[in-house]
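[09:14] KT: can someone run the structure on this one? pasting the chain below
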Amino acid sequence: METAPPAFLDLLSPAVQGLVLTVVAYEIAGGRRPTEGRRAIGFVAFALVFIAAARAIPGAVPVAVPEVSAYPSSRLAVQLLTNAVLAAPCVGWMLWRRRGAAALGLARADLSRSLAIGALVSIACVGLSDRLSLTFWTAPDTLRLLLAQVGVGLSEEIVFRGILLGSLMRRMSTSRAEVLSATIFSVVHIPQRLAHGTGAEDLMVDLTLLFVWGWCFAIAMRRARNVPGLALVHAVINVANG
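[09:31] RB: done, structure tokens below
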């Protein structure tokens, strides 16, 4: 009789590998000089080749096509509206205080670099997951789910990595701000997990994973200086490891 693996092994999941990859990629591209950006692209390209080679080993990739769950347009609309409503008060407050788009993590100067690295890391995250299937990723329901998760990612990254992290860094050291923002990011997900009936053990694992997520993205944000690329990775991880 087969038994389920211990819940703590989720800490070694492809999602966490994707988070670490995100940190490393943005750290390598940490400066504004073109050579540093090329290093990041080269690193992620190497990671993609490595993943592809590993996947070429017989049995490394699941033979069956991942199941595509139904995700109707009505659900997409509700998800996008929900995230817009949740993020609106924070965004409105910052705009009212005339902080500008940069305070939201939407600095135009670094937008293209952030998106380019985020796109490459997203491809690598797909390779790390068990949903390496063109059929899965081109299915209409998957595309609608991905769009919904882009909304989730963008709203959460603006609030937690744009507004919250930026505000904390003005009041305390960078390391403390990163840890505190990651803690808050983890804790605010408790009601959602409880509403879905998550048990005590799984809840602790989820909160630990969310803390790791928040900390990794906070570190990456220090280098990315922009949230759109992180929002894209956020969305792809949610779908690829959902």
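[09:33] KT: thanks! The longest helix spans residues 140-169.
[09:34] RB: yep, looked fine to me
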